[in-house]
Amino acid sequence: MNIRMAFKVWQRNATVYRKLYRSSIALNFFEPMLYLIALGYGLGGFIKEINGLSYTEFIAPGIIMSSAMYAASYECTYGTYVRMEYQKTFDAILATPIIFNELILGELLWGATKSLIYGSIIIIVISLFGLVKSSFVLFLIPFIFFCGLIFASLSLIATALVPGIDSFNYFYTLILTPLFLFSGIFFPLEEMSEIILSIAKINPLFHLVNIARAFCYGNMERAILTDSFYVLIYLIILLPLPFLLLKRRYLL
Question: Do 153 and 238 contact (CB within 8 A), yes or no?
Fold first, then answer.
């Protein structure tokens, strides 16, 4: 597999994005900012400090990662499906010297790049709000990309399995929404029962939110050790699956 060829796929998607970025920003940027403003500054006025943080400070790092999650997910579900089934972009690309695995790698890298774009924008915005307390936040950038790779992989798996584009509603409602709500963004899961906490630890977003919170406020120990290990495990497990499942779907 030639990385340079995969980059050509990435470059093609980036070129299209430059023409459509305004509507994409509206979808992926303003929604997380509404969560931050409505819940952080609205509901936060009625909630006491959590772990020494105001409620706005508590949820802000999680908004970075949830924005990255949804950016990759939208791109690698609806975006990839449309390119594959309706626009026949996959057919056109595969008529070139690019092979299927290079095409899928390009899709993965582009989904992760979208996460990086929107996650980085959220970092800048919450920094302007005074919600970032540590310069270690710069080390969060690679983890935003890893978040994108994890959810791009998960989304491409869904794309390989759904019978039609309308079925993505099940993916968002039954998988992404529970991952979003039980990730520790809006309330500390440590205060809940051991059963709930054990289930939450299966959620990759839970570990990514812990990492984001640690880097934003300078608590490095946990981010580097436990949660980073979980992120690595998810990458190892999930990354190979889109290549296998999408190839099987495409060739059938």
Answer: yes
Q: Which two tokens stand for residue 174?
A: 């039954």
Q: Name beta bridge partners: 50.
A: 53
Single pTM value for the model: 0.91
**What residue type is 174 in one-letter code?**
L
pLDDT < 50 positions in the chain: none
Contact between 153 and 108 under an 8 Å Cβ cutoff? The reply is: yes
Q: In Å, what is the CA distance from 217 to each residue of 60, 139, 183, 221?
A: 11, 12, 18, 12
Cα separation, 157 vs 160, whole angstroms? 5
Domain tally, the chain: 1
The residues, ordered by sequence, that sit 6+ positions from 57 with a Cβ below 8 Å of its Cβ are 131, 133, 217
What are the structure tokens assigned to 172, written together?
Answer: 């968002």
Report d(CA 170, CA 177) in Å as an integer: 10
Instruction: Say how far apart CA 152 and CA 69 lie, in whole Å.
Output: 8
Say which residues have a Cβ less than 8 Å from residue 75's Cβ, sequence separation at least 6: 110, 111, 114, 152, 155
Q: How far apart are CA 49 and CA 120, in angstroms?
A: 26
Q: What are phi and psi of 135, to 5 degrees?
A: -70, -10
Could you tell me the maximum CA-CA distance found in the chain, to the nearest angstrom? 59
> Mind listing the pLDDT tens digit for each residue in 194-217?
888 888 889 999 999 999 999 998
Provide the residue range defining the domain that includes 23: 3-251
Q: Convert the pLDDT of each residue in 67-85 to its tens digit.
A: 999 999 999 999 999 999 9
Instruction: Give the three-state DSSP class for 182.
Output: coil
- Mapped onto helix, strand or coil, the DSSP state of residue 67 is helix
